Amino acid sequence: MQVPFLDLKRRQAELGPGFKDAIDKIIESCAFINGPEVKLFEAELSSYIGAPVISCASGTDALLLAMMDIDLTPHDEVIVPSFTFIATAEVPVFLGAKIRFADIDPLTFNVDVSSVEKLINHNTKVVVAVDLFGHSADYKALRELCDKHDLVLVQDAAQSLGGRYNNLPLGSLANYGCLSFFPAKNLGCLGDGGAVVLRDVDTAEQIRIFRQHGGGKKYQHTHIGVNSRLDTLQAAVLLEQLPYLDEWIQRRRQHAHHYNEAFNSQQFTDKLIIPVEQQGTYHSYNQYVVRVLDGCRDDLKIFLFDHGIQSMIYYPKALHQQPVFQSISQEACSESKKACSEVLALPISPWLTAEEQDFVIQKVKYFFK
Description:
Blueprint lengths: L7 H8 L1 H13 L6 H14 L3 E4 L2 H12 L6 E5 L5 H8 L3 E5 L10 H7 L4 E7 L8 H11 L2 E5 L7 E2 L2 E2 L6 E5 L13 E5 L5 H8 L20 H10 L3 H19 L8 E2 L7 E2 L5 E5 L4 H10 L27 H7 L2 E4 L7 H15 L1
Helix pairs in contact: 2-9, 3-9, 4-5, 4-8, 10-13
């Protein structure tokens, strides 16, 4: 049996002819930029999240637009977790700010609030929290900390759309929420796409200006901006999928529950640590990531591959260890470093079959036996 990590052909098969019809409609109309589907998708997603949404060209650009609106200076410091994708850290550096790396909670992989607090000084301006793998960060504690020190809180919800924290949609819990529609996300398009979620509706027009060369009207530019528009084609594709999002998240959660039942036994207590779902959270399981103990993570990955099972390592190196950041920040982040040597993501897509998942479980058990 061959078990793919993610087979997007299955997604398109489930969506049926309406998926291709939506694409054909855009091709026929030739309204490839700023077509009506873009505004419609923003409105539908805004209704889903319960906050204003401004679409853009990628999840990285969502972070960029948020940071541009914050108006960072070279004196400002931005605190980011070390265990995440590089976009979270590269954007503030690209805009000229300094970054400080906070360590993670080893149970959730999300930023450790106590680590953040130790890094705050008179230059700190922004704290970025990442809902890694689909599990919410601790926004109650983060919000209290940011309010205490008058800091801007940014939520990187690239992996968590469809999840919740205290019954509030993820993406809507900070001053700015940043979403990604990369094909592998819970809601994925046919390329790159993203969106900024806002708490302050008055900010929306400014973000729109930034994303279109700094101009509200054609050939009139009030700011230095970027070209970061969501293509009409991508908006149409996302519109087709949005009604399925909650069902797809539920399937991911069912797969996670099945894995947990299989691995949550005395047999595995010294071999695997399964993902947690803390009280008040609703995990969207963009990835199902276990910690493989005793230094045998790479052996397990090879073993699964040899038996036709794809798995992924998110992430093999912490950001504070990356060569590009060596001269910028010297935080130790021991938990982030440790996670990089232990994490392994098993297949969990909504289109994973019961037979495929049982095969994965069987092979993992056999490896440890």
